[in-house]
């Protein structure tokens, strides 16, 4: 099959039309296109990345706006994403989202093609390969602890303190629906490590709200400035105190994260279509995920809430406290561990087990590197039911 024949433009046209409402004067934007498309055997998962020049507004500086084409179904003929079944309820197009990124434009830089930084295209293709490999779907409120990856991509332009990413809805590109399914635009917002840690303690939305109040942290359009040297807590008065008071009063509002984690049970059946009770489960976290676990034990589970880890290999771990209220909870104080195939595990932690986990794992919060790993812990439940927690190097997760 060639690109010139047997092609549907439905998905592409829908994205272009959405962008044209924001950029009516840029109907032919600069595009970074895959030389060999993914569906022709190419290594890059996205067909195109359009790059628009945005003048900014009263609160946000001028910037480049990168928009992906390929997470959703561009063609509708099955060459990349499955063709929708007529029986599907509220179907999404492909993975259901396209990613965007807004990069601050230096005042001395022009608007020619040669002036456009292309490293964000590498970032977006990197994330696309991960999504296509694992099937993981991003959502607003997720965060990505990127470590060395983001600074390395940017390194030819200099050093940066922006190491991680928060995910929120794009403030200008609106979601839409076609006969191929629904599409939303998720924006990547760069952040410092301490800003990411704060998002893990409260939630991503609260940090995003802080960013939007100040031009230096991106303003209303959430523009990432890779040269920013001060965190939002240095720039915005009382920001740290406001977040701490809110957590002390309400607990963490962060209910779900994407992290390097996995779970395993024996025996296991990938084809199970209903939950079944198990007596033992092995959980594996990298150090970052383990630190999040410690935080949510204190700020959510001890307050009668629930929390979900979405893993890199399309598994989920749902921790539930006895006071949690949510549809889909299958566990109880007697059947504390339930599994659905190899994809979803639910674990109810009783108050004494929450305290035990905090007591045994609290020292992890002070670990600065992975040299002391691996570590393993056993948490006994009732009647010979057990939870094992292993903390390993991030390199153990092959999808990195």
Automatic annotation (TrEMBL):
Suppressor of fused-like domain sequence ranges: 43-229
CC annotations in GO: cytoplasm; nucleus
Entry's transmembrane regions: none
Domain Suppressor of fused C-terminal intervals: 276-381
Top-level taxon of origin: Eukaryota
The protein's name in its UniProt record: Suppressor of fused-like domain-containing protein
Organism: Rotaria socialis
């Amino acid at each position: 099959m060639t690109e010139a024949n047997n092609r549907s433009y439905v998905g592409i046209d829908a994205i272009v039309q959405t962008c044209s409402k924001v950029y009516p004067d840029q109907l032919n934007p600069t595009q970074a296109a895959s030389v060999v498309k993914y569906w022709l055997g190419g290594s890059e998962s996205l067909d195109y990345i359009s790059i628009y020049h945005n003048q900014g507004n009263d609160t946000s500086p001028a910037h480049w706006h990168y928009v992906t084409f390929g997470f959703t179904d561009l063609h509708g003929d099955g060459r990349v994403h499955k063709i929708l079944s007529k029986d599907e309820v509220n179907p999404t197009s492909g993975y259901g989202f396209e990613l965007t990124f807004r990069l601050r434009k230096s005042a001395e830089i022009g608007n020619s093609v040669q002036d456009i930084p292309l490293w964000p295209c590498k970032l977006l293709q990197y994330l696309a390969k991960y999504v296509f490999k694992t099937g993981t779907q991003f959502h607003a409120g997720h965060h990505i602890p990127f470590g060395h990856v983001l600074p390395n991509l940017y390194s030819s332009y200099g050093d940066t303190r922006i190491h991680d990413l928060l995910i929120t809805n794009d403030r200008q590109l609106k979601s839409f629906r076609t006969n191929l399914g629904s599409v939303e635009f998720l924006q990547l917002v760069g952040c410092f490590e301490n800003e990411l840690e704060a998002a893990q303690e409260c939630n991503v939305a609260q940090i995003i709200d802080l960013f939007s109040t100040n031009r230096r942290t991106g303003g209303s359009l959430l523009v990432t400035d890779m040269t920013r040297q001060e965190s939002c807590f240095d720039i915005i008065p009382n920001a740290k105190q406001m977040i701490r008071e809110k957590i002390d009063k309400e607990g963490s509002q962060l209910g779900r994260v994407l992290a390097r984690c996995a779970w395993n049970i024996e025996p296991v059946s990938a084809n199970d279509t209903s939950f079944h009770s198990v007596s033992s489960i092995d959980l594996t976290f990298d150090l970052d995920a383990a630190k999040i676990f410690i935080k949510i034990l204190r700020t959510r589970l001890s307050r009668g809430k629930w929390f979900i880890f979405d893993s890199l290999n399309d598994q989920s771990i749902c921790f539930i406290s006895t006071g949690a209220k949510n549809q889909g909870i299958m566990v109880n104080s007697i059947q504390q561990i339930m599994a659905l195939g190899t994809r979803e595990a639910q674990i109810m932690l009783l108050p004494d087990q929450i305290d035990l986990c905090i007591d045994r794992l609290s020292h992890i919060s002070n670990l600065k590197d992975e040299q002391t790993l691996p570590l393993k812990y056993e948490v006994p439940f009732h009647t010979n039911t057990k939870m094992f927690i292993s903390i390993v190097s991030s390199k153990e997760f092959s999808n990195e």
